[in-house]
């Protein structure tokens, strides 16, 4: 009897543990969503609580895959609010350079000026944003805040085309305007400052417009520094997203033909069927090999036979980040910048708080002085 | 590449206004300005302009980690108004302003810790891949 109560108590502990550390994926719902990692929440105590020590100890980071413009990494031990702040900053607040003003001298193509300008804006421009300042609307363009590109192209008939040709490629010259046609015009000391680094479109083969003989485009485009929250063209991230690490808990062993069925409920490679020898007999056993690549389709929960044998969860503080760059910034640089921006937001608010308190103090003391003066009178 | 150096000194690029005038910086954060405010050092609503859920939620989480904080919540009262309100209520052992300051400082050093850990992982990955 005693034994059974102690066993029951431990299962309650275990369940609580699951609810605190896991997001539970059920057949037609997701439960235990919100974090409970706060002092005095449920059975949390945190005596002699040092916030930072506790949080800092938990943090682990591992890079899974990395190329120059694409990376996948795990951050373990942070809260969703922090992970989400980083994701949002990567998308919307890491600055880059993009075409913002277009001066059109001549455009006789069928694409309207404003549509052309919009298309130009969306072309990723490779230039180190750290080397430039934000241009305030009241400021004039300088070599510190603007990059100038020129584009001049005229479509002509190809004199070598034969009467039978129908392909525009054969019939015309310069009928496709590609991003490669944007030529950088260094201003001020830019030629000297950027002699070792490339400035220009990331891709040369982005089609901007099409023309026919006699049509012409001539324009000047000004790049400015900006953030994705103003316009997505400034976003350095093609994708910046995270998901929680999936976890498949087997409550009891799944064997025989059921093991094959079980494995087929998951994405390929997540569950494998292994053969083991029990009492001289070879039986098939399902083993969870790689939950990371699971899509958490919940297919397994549709089948009655697995109902009490499996639980699907996600690990609440294990974030799998995927950051893909548009080609302007290295993916790792996007992550570093986002952390730095979050930190500088705090610095700025601390400064604002101090200034506000000083202001208040000054007002208070001057009021006191006024009162004192009144008394003197 | 090593980015750890710039983790501590926040460059001015991110805050173009920083050098303009201190007045602008002090306008970012306000308190005792919301309607119906009762002046009480233990419970205050801070009003921040120029910030959204990005900082609001992260800061709320950090402030709630403080055991002296009884309540902390944030809201963006209207999407077309550039305003983020953070409400803090504390025990008598501290004040809302101190809780706010601690939250900001904690968030900042958490960032530094993540940067440091990320740097290590990044260097480790680079080393491993340059060998193989």
UniProtKB/TrEMBL annotation, chain A:
Keyword Nucleus: yes
Localization terms from the record: Nucleus
Principal location listed in the UniProt entry: nucleus
Gene3D superfamilies the record matches: DNA-directed RNA polymerase, insert domain, RNA polymerase, RBP11-like subunit
Annotated DNA-directed RNA polymerase RpoA/D/Rpb3-type domain residues: 70-352
Swiss-Prot/TrEMBL GO biological process terms: DNA-templated transcription
Family as reported in the entry's similarity comment: Belongs to the archaeal Rpo3/eukaryotic RPB3 RNA polymerase subunit family.
Name the record gives this protein: DNA-directed RNA polymerases I and III subunit RPAC1
InterPro entries assigned: DNA-dir_RNA_pol_30-40kDasu_CS, DNA-dir_RNA_pol_insert, DNA-dir_RNA_pol_RpoA/D/Rpb3, RBP11-like, RNAP_Rpo3/Rpb3/RPAC1, RNAPI/III_AC40, RNApol_insert_sf, Rpo3/RPB3_RNA_Pol_subunit
Key word Transcription present: yes
HAMAP family for this protein: RNApol_arch_Rpo3 (MF_00320)
GO molecular function (one): DNA-directed RNA polymerase activity
Entry keywords, A to Z: DNA-directed RNA polymerase, Nucleus, Transcription
GO annotations of cellular component type: nuclear DNA-directed RNA polymerase complex; RNA polymerase I complex; RNA polymerase III complex
Database matches in SMART domains: RPOLD
From TrEMBL, chain B:
Keyword Nucleus: yes
GO molecular function: DNA binding; DNA-directed RNA polymerase activity; protein dimerization activity
Ranges annotated as biased composition (Low complexity): 1-14
BP GO terms, sorted: transcription by RNA polymerase III; transcription elongation by RNA polymerase I
Keywords: DNA-directed RNA polymerase, Nucleus, Transcription
GO CC annotation: nuclear DNA-directed RNA polymerase complex; RNA polymerase I complex; RNA polymerase III complex
SUPFAM superfamilies, per database record: RBP11-like subunits of RNA polymerase
Compartment(s) where it occurs, according to its Swiss-Prot or TrEMBL record: Nucleus
Family matches, as CDD domains: RNAP_I_III_AC19
Domain named DNA-directed RNA polymerase RBP11-like dimerisation: residues: 44-116
HAMAP family xref list: RNApol_arch_Rpo11
Protein family: Belongs to the archaeal Rpo11/eukaryotic RPB11/RPC19 RNA polymerase subunit family.
PANTHER family membership: DNA-DIRECTED RNA POLYMERASE I,II,III, DNA-DIRECTED RNA POLYMERASES I AND III SUBUNIT RPAC2
Designated name of the protein: DNA-directed RNA polymerases I and III subunit RPAC2
Organism field: Glomus cerebriforme
């Amino acid at each position: 009897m005693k034994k059974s109560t102690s066993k029951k108590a431990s299962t309650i502990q275990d369940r609580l543990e699951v609810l605190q550390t896991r997001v539970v994926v059920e057949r037609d719902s997701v439960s235990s969503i919100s974090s409970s990692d706060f002092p005095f929440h449920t059975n949390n105590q945190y005596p002699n609580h040092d916030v930072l020590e506790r949080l800092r100890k938990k943090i682990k980071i591992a890079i899974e895959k990395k190329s120059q413009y694409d990376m996948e990494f795990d951050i373990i031990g942070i809260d969703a609010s922090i992970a989400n702040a980083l994701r949002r900053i990567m998308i919307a607040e890491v600055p880059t350079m993009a075409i913002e003003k277009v001066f059109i001298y001549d455009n006789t193509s069928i694409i309207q000026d404003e549509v052309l300008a919009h298309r130009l804006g969306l072309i990723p421009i490779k230039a180190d944003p750290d080397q430039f300042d934000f241009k305030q609307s009241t400021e004039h363009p300088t070599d510190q805040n603007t990059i100038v590109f020129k584009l001049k192209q005229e479509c002509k008939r190809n004199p070598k085309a034969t009467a039978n040709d129908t392909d525009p490629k054969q019939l015309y010259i310069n009928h496709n305007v590609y991003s490669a046609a944007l030529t950088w015009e260094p201003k001020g000391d830019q030629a000297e400052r950027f002699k070792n680094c490339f400035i220009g479109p990331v891709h040369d083969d982005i089609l901007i417009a099409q023309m026919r003989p006699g049509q012409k485009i001539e324009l000047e485009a000004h790049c400015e520094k900006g953030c994705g929250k103003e316009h997505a063209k400034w976003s350095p991230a093609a994708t910046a997203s995270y998901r929680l690490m999936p976890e498949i808990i087997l409550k009891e062993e799944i064997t025989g033909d059921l093991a094959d069925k079980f494995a087929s409920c998951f994405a390929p490679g997540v569950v494998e069927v292994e053969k083991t020898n029990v009492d001289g007999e070879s039986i098939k056993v399902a083993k969870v090999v790689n939950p990371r690549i699971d899509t958490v389709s919940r297919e397994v929960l549709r089948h009655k036979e697995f109902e009490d044998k499996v639980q699907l969860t996600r690990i609440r503080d294990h974030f799998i980040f995927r950051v893909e760059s548009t080609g302007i910034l290295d993916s790792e640089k996007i992550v570093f910048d986002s952390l730095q921006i979050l930190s500088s937001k705090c610095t700025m608010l601390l400064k604002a708080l101090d200034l506000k308190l000083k202001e208040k103090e000054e007002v208070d003391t001057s009021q006191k002085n006024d009162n004192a003066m009144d008394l003197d009178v | 590449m090593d980015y750890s150096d710039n983790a501590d000194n926040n460059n001015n690029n991110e805050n173009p206004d920083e050098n303009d005038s201190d007045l602008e910086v002090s306008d970012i954060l306000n308190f005792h300005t919301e309607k119906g405010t009762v002046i009480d050092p233990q419970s205050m609503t801070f009003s921040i302009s120029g910030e959204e859920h990005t900082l609001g939620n992260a800061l709320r989480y950090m402030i709630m980690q403080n055991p002296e904080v009884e309540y902390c919540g944030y809201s963006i009262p209207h999407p077309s108004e550039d305003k983020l309100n953070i409400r803090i209520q504390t025990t008598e052992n501290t004040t809302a302003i101190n809780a706010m300051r601690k939250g900001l400082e904690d968030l900042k050093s958490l960032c530094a810790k993540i940067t440091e850990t990320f740097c290590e992982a990044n260097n480790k990955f680079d080393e491993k891949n340059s060998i193989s």
